[in-house]
Amino acid sequence: MNQKKKVLHIISSLNIGGTQVLLRDLLKTTSFSNYQHYFLVEESSGFLDNEIIKLGGEIIRVKKIKKTTFIYYIYNLIRIIKIKKIDIVHSHVSYFSGINIFISFLYNVKIRISHAHSMSKKNNKYTSLMRLLINKFSTQKIACSHETGISIFGSKTDFTIIKNGIFLNKRNIKQENNISPLIIGHIARLVPEKNQKFLIDLISKKNNSELHIIGDGPLKNELIEYSQKIGVSDRVYFHGVSRYPFKDIGKYKCNVMIYPSIREGFGISIIESQYYGFPTVISNNVPKEAIVIPSLVKTISLENSDIDIDTFLTKNKKISQTIIDEYFINKECDIKYTANKIGSIYESK
């Protein structure tokens, strides 16, 4: 019996986020069950820890990476590669993948993958050096969208676009067909690039409307205070992290999902919103790859705060589950397709 190849995933944490949910779902597929998966994370525990362990993953913690702990991190990475006899390093940490990939090269890891999950507009000596290391020492570069790949790897190199797929067998969400009252849903981390303040401002302009935000993050208290300041705190609900966010969205009777992102790598919540049949409003900063069902999506400019949501909802027609599944398969947004594509890279050497 052949021994399973050993994959080291390097990611900052296993808290709820698009990358983390993708990795959790990939572990549930047949393609990924053929490997032993290790997860190198910074020391704090994460929301998905128990699920990852139940799915056969092993979590290895290191101290939070700072100037004072950088050498300690390098020492631990080398030790893990040698002791665990890692065959594949799959780095999910944006520019810092440059360090991980370079160390993996020095210690003879045959397959070294840099995976870009989020956009970045940084351009300085650090990003230039990391991009150089990524492009020179990666055996494969993956991005969830064209724009994300360009932002991390640059425009003069090749990379493979693999979209963040989802499971196509989880449709039990009750959709609201009413357009009044307006009940907005939003699922994301509470961080500047997700732009939740835009949604709170929108609620202040729409009488008899509600906003339900599912997610957590460093801006939570600031956003709560802002909703109080402009007098809409009785219509803005912060529900925290949820294991099944779209079940909650159905429970809150949301009739539209809105994602006014300033930057977006791909947006698993955005494609899930379409999968569950919700009319979905996105900013023009969201990559085109996240538009799976065009009739369900309205793209807006953040410079125009006057969004005609009522007309969009009135024109929106319910789509059958069969047709939705066909869209997702044709657009390569099925988790099985994603797993097979990544699995083929794992077997490339």
Sequence-ordered SSE layout with sheet pairings:
Layout: E1 5-10, H1 18-27, E2 35-42, H2 49-54, E3 58-62, H3 70-83, E4 88-91, H4 97-106, E5 111-116, H5 125-137, E6 140-143, H6 146-153, E7 160-161, E8 182-187, H7 196-205, E9 209-214, H8 220-229, E10 236-238, H9 245-251, E11 256-259, H10 268-275, E12 280-283, E13 297-300, H11 309-315, H12 321-330, H13 335-346
Parallel strand pairs: 1-2, 1-4, 2-3, 4-5, 5-6, 6-7, 8-9, 8-11, 9-10, 11-12, 12-13
Helix pairs in contact: 4-5
CATH topology of the largest domain: Rossmann fold
CATH superfamily membership of the largest domain:
Glycogen Phosphorylase B
The top level CATH class name of the largest domain: Alpha Beta
Uncertain residue segments: none
By oligomeric state, this entry counts as: single chain
Identify the CATH architecture of the largest domain: 3-Layer(aba) Sandwich
Give the helix/strand class.
alpha/beta
Domain Glycosyl transferase family: 171-289
Pfam families: Glycos_transf_1 (PF00534)
GO molecular function: glycosyltransferase activity
InterPro entries: Glyco_trans_1
Description:
Residues 171-289 form the Glycosyl transferase family domain. It comes from Proteus mirabilis. This is Gt1. This protein has 349 residues and is α/β, with parallel strands linked by helices. It has two domains: 6-165 and 334-347, Glycogen Phosphorylase B (Rossmann fold), CATH 3.40.50; 182-331, 3-Layer(aba) Sandwich (Rossmann fold), CATH 3.40.50. The protein is 36% helix and 18% strand. It contains 13 helices and 13 strands. The protein has helices spanning 18-27, 49-54, 70-83, 97-106, 125-137, 146-153, 196-205, 220-229, 245-251, 268-275, 309-315, 321-330, 335-346; strands at 5-10, 35-42, 58-62, 88-91, 111-116, 140-143, 160-161, 182-187, 209-214, 236-238, 256-259, 280-283, 297-300. The protein has a seven-stranded parallel β-sheet. Helix 4 crosses helix 5. The model has no long low-confidence stretch (mean pLDDT 93).
